[in-house]
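Subject: for your reference before the review

Hello V.,

The reviewers asked for a structural picture of the protein, and I figured it would be easier to keep everything in one thread rather than splitting it across files. Below is the amino acid sequence we used in the manuscript, unchanged from the supplementary table.
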Amino acid sequence: MFSARGRPVACLRCPDRRVAAEKAGWDQPLAAGSGGKRGRGVAVHESFNSYVAQVAEMTVRKGGQIRVDRVVIAVDCGIAVNPDVVRAQMEGGMGFGLSAALWGEATLMDGLVQQSNFDDYQMLRLDRMPQVEVHIVPSAEPPTGVGEPATPVIAPAVANAVFAATSRRLRQLPLKLAC
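And here is what came back from the structure prediction:
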């Protein structure tokens, strides 16, 4: 587990830096939505010596559909050699992880995978991509990896947001609420 201070905590909350909790307005009530119950959740992850915090804001729509509306990402990847690439990797990794979190399911029948191609395997499409904000935490540490660290964080952030909205814990992927 993370210590109570240092780089992971800087990604999550630090009063003098633009980071996930601060930029997401964690201390403010979540704006009410007209489409259903809303929730906000957070998760923090470390891999490749980079630290990523994500705050997901979502709406549970009629029928139990989970719609992620906004994601705020803070990343401490050491010195950001190319900040535009860091932002692009965070956005793309989060989108890839969100696909897995909401729809990443392969079903079997008689020992065969039922999904054959992208026409019957649901993935995140542009019209479902949430608003994304990426904040790079200033650091003097040596540069670290940004290719994958944003991917695994979104599922627990969304699961925590679902819990905030519904008081139901989802512990299995893909994340689904019964209709």
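For the response letter, the relevant points are probably these. The helical segments are 7-12, 20-23, 83-103, 154-166. The first strand starts at residue 36 and ends at 47.

Happy to draft the paragraph if you're swamped.

O.
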